[in-house]
Amino acid sequence: MATVNENSERDTAGKKVLFSGIQPSGIITIGNYVGAIKNWINLQLDYDSIFCIVNLHAITVKLEPAALRLNTLELLALYLACGIDPNLSTVFLQSHVSAHAELAWILNTVAYVGELNRMTQYKDKAKKHADNINMGLMDYPVLMASDILLYKTDLVPVGADQKQHLELARDLALRFNTRYSDTFVVPNAYIPKVGAKVMSLQDAKIKMSKSDENENAYISMTDSPDVIRRKFKRAVTDSDSSIRFLKEKPEISNLLSIYSAFGGVTVKEAEHEFEDIGYGEFKSRLADAVIAVLEPIQNKQKQLLSDKAYLNQVLKEGAQKANYRAQKMLSKVYRKVGFVQKS
Ligand code: AMP
Ligand code: TRP
């Protein structure tokens, strides 16, 4: 079999390509940070990195246009405040590069209805938004595959909930390559060992999610120190008192993972640190660790949001860089499928 990496984009420094994105659909939680953004920052020096704000994905559920506009700039400011460097990486808005929607159409012709119908996130969202099961919701993973495949992406850092979508992107790449000859790089998921699935603070069986009706279930990246302390204090725990990472202690294990991600220690080290300590004190130190990371990010985000001209400039330059690369791939795909070139 042809080695897929022959298609791999190498920039002048010979780096592999990394691509990821988040929907500008409102609240961004510490789950998004630990599962995705934090790893982006760690990887951006080693990869030719592309970070997208996926607004085409965001409208697959109902969103007020004014809110979407605001969320977009807030998410961009958050990306930058967390440490994404637009001089080093490409940061852009999905709707600014039309090739994403165009490639999605082509990929739709190699994606099967059956496989999309089986996607767990689609099934969950269809249940949750029963009054709005639109085609976009079902097609969501194909658009995501298009995002990734346009840039010859090698690595996609995401939380565990995106694993199935990544597998579909790989399948579509391979299927297209088989049908039309070698074109796409087959991407790999990067899922962190700790924090790939941050769980709800109220129910450790479900994922921490911004769309949870109970605000105490999640910590938003913009929650104030007081709110963070209160939410951790109210976090559900068992009635035992040992701070151990164990299957039978899912709530404490979740809090230990969060502490590990924010405190910069391993889970083992955290267990050791809290050996003779009660839940109350643990939760208070956990809040301290999270606040220590979030406060400077929040300040930076606020500062960036007051400079709209700068944010727009970042988007403009990002779109130029992304568009150049995406158009090259789209032209190649159009050639492969037999579309007559525009003269
Ligand atoms: P979304 O908010 O669905 O656009 O997700 C953006 C990124 O955050 C994706 O890589 C998700 O896998 C990741 N993510 C979302 N929620 C969590 C969570 N609770 N734990 C870990 N990663 C998450
Ligand atoms: N589907 C992802 C999520 O909900 C967001 C996303 C869209 C994405 N396109 C992507 C993530 C491409 C990684 C790569 O979390």
Annotate the secondary structure layout.
Layout: E1 17-22, H1 30-43, E2 48-53, H2 55-58, H3 65-82, E3 90-93, H4 99-108, H5 113-117, H6 120-128, H7 135-149, E4 155-157, H8 163-180, E5 188-190, H9 225-234, H10 250-263, H11 267-273, H12 279-305, H13 308-337
Parallel strand pairs: 1-2, 2-3, 4-5
Helix pairs in contact: 3-12, 4-7, 4-13, 7-8, 9-12, 10-11, 10-12
The structure holds adenosine monophosphate and tryptophan.
Adenosine monophosphate binds next to helix 1.
Please, could you describe this protein's structure?
This protein has 343 residues and is mainly alpha-helical. The protein has 2 domains: 8-196 and 307-337, HUPs (Rossmann fold), CATH 3.40.50; 215-301, Tyrosyl-Transfer RNA Synthetase (Orthogonal Bundle), CATH 1.10.240. Helix content is 53%, strand content 6%. It contains 13 helices and 5 strands. A 3-stranded parallel beta sheet has the order 1-2-3. Strand 1, helix 1 (30-43) and strand 2 (48-53) form a beta-alpha-beta unit. Helix 10 crosses helix 11. The longest helix is centred in the C-terminal third of the chain and has 30 residues, at 308-337. The protein is globular. Mean pLDDT is 95; it is low at 1-6. The structure holds adenosine monophosphate and tryptophan (TRP). Adenosine monophosphate (AMP) is lined by residues 22-23, 31-32, 34-36, 158-159, 161-162, 196-198, 207-208.
